[in-house]
Design a protein that fits this description.
17 helices, transmembrane helix, mainly alpha, Amino acid/polyamine transporter I, disordered N terminus
Length: 449
């Protein structure tokens, strides 16, 4: 994309005043949990179980621990400088407006777009499961694209529509998931299914690699960071919102993991990994339980895509205004933010058609972990004194990410080396493209000065 976007300062001031404080604390929590639960439970439970074996519920605990370490950097930075597109702000303050800040921000945006396509395909898989069409590639793509278009329409209606929709849908899905988990545990107990199997096939490397997916299940907290400037009383509420959302998801994930593990064997969980909750509901609760779970899954994944599209479009808007990524009108009218909303849904829709769930999730994990390590190092190296952060916690978060990334890369090199290659090529292209774009901008400025 090329070209520049011309906006008057008056228009920006009006838009900023309109958006500031438009998301309540409860609405922000709903947005964060909407993204996390949409991906973590319905899209990733089976893939985590495949790597971690019968101990897969412990992977969620480990993922929560690593996420809590990671959240420390974001909370400290957001408390000091809350803004829409907050991760881009963190990286620019840490590294300056250069290649590292721009590239890491793009990786974050890409991981969020990938998450949208992941959750959209999960929505389609659950919606088609009652009809036995969950493997129909064409129908999966059509339904996934339909959900992404729906998310665009909700976002185009404004912030309050997103906040209200997220709040209502999050309440429905969290309550529904809790009912499913308690009922499944009541019916199956704690000694059946995967928990009745010996852990003889357990491999430490597989368990550590599974934490990459668990971290991806919690990364929705960055949705809150990226919308920080639009949350009521952001200096006080951004950090509170992040910790509340992570806490809710820890409890929800453990309930569901134990319920699924008590109902299905590991082999069956892996076989039904794209719709494992629906598969677990049927033997434990019968046809009514199956349909109940499908409805909850469709609701959860829909709200996840709506919330994620909101956050990504805000982050891309900030990157464009910071002149870290190129932009073109492509003949469209309206504000810069409305253009980036269109680009977001186009990218998510393309990924939803091109990749299956397993590879989408793996790409998202690679991009997110690399970006996260750069955030921690940048805050540690340049900003920890400014925001009052403890260096030991920042280094511990970076080390945890590094260990998980190494294990995940090793396991994927053995099982699916192409996805590692795709991720490596994507990261190299992002850094090279960002370097070229910024250098070209510098040359233009010298020529016009």
């Amino acid at each position: 994309m090329t070209g520049e976007h011309d906006h008057s300062s008056a228009h920006r001031a009006h838009e900023g005043a309109e958006q500031q404080g438009s998301i309540s604390l409860s609405g922000a929590v709903a947005m964060g949990t909407g993204v996390m639960i949409g991906a973590g439970i319905f899209a990733l439970t089976g893939q985590i179980a495949e790597l971690a074996g019968p101990l897969f519920p412990l992977s969620f605990i480990a993922g929560a621990f690593v996420t809590a370490l990671a959240a420390y950097s974001y909370v400290k930075m957001s408390d000091a400088w809350p803004s829409s597109g907050g991760i881009a702000m963190i990286l620019q303050k840490a590294y300056g407006p250069g290649t590292i800040a721009g590239s890491a921000s793009v990786l974050m945006a890409l991981s969020m777009v990938i998450n949208e396509s992941l959750v959209a395909r999960t929505f389609a898989t659950y919606a088609l499961r009652p009809f036995g069409e969950e493997t129909n590639g064409l129908l999966l793509s059509v339904l996934a694209l339909a959900l992404i278009v729906f998310a665009y329409l909700v976002n185009a209606a404004g912030n309050r529509s997103v906040s209200t929709a997220s709040l209502v849908m999050s309440a429905i899905k969290i309550g529904g998931i809790a009912i499913f988990a308690i009922a499944a545990l009541w019916a199956s107990g704690f000694s059946g299914g995967a928990f009745g199997e010996p852990a003889t096939g357990f491999k430490g490397m597989g368990f550590v690699a599974s934490i990459a997916f668990s971290i991806l299940a919690f990364k929705g907290f960055t949705t809150i960071t990226n919308s920080g400037g639009e949350i009521v009383d952001p200096h006080r509420n951004v950090g509170r919102t992040i910790m509340i959302a992570i806490g809710i998801c820890v409890v929800t994930y453990l309930l569901v993991a134990v319920a699924v593990g008590s109902s299905l064997s590991i082999e069956r969980i892996v076989e039904a990994r794209d719709y494992s909750l629906a598969a677990a509901a049927e033997p434990a609760l019968g046809p009514a339980g199956f349909w109940f779970t499908v409805v909850i899954a469709v609701t959860a994944t829909a709200s996840g895509v709506v919330a994620s599209v909101f956050a990504v479009s805000r982050m891309l808007t900030m990157l464009t205004e910071m002149k870290l990524i190129p932009h073109s009108h492509f003949g469209m009218k309206g504000s810069l933010r409305s253009h980036l909303l269109v680009y977001t849904v186009v990218m998510a829709g393309t990924l939803a058609v091109l990749f299956d769930l397993t590879r989408i999730a793996a790409l998202g994990a690679f991009f997110y972990l690399v970006m996260d390590m750069l955030v921690h190092w940048g805050v540690f190296r340049h900003l920890r004194r400014d925001v009052g952060a403890r260096g030991a916690i920042l280094l511990a978060a970076m080390a945890a990410d590094g260990v998980v990334l190494a294990a995940f890369s090793w396991v994927k090199l053995k099982s699916d080396p192409m996805v590692v290659l795709y991720a490596a090529i994507g990261i190299v292209l992002v850094f090279a493209g960002e370097h070229f774009f910024l250098r070209r901008g510098e040359r233009r400025e010298r020529e016009t000065s």
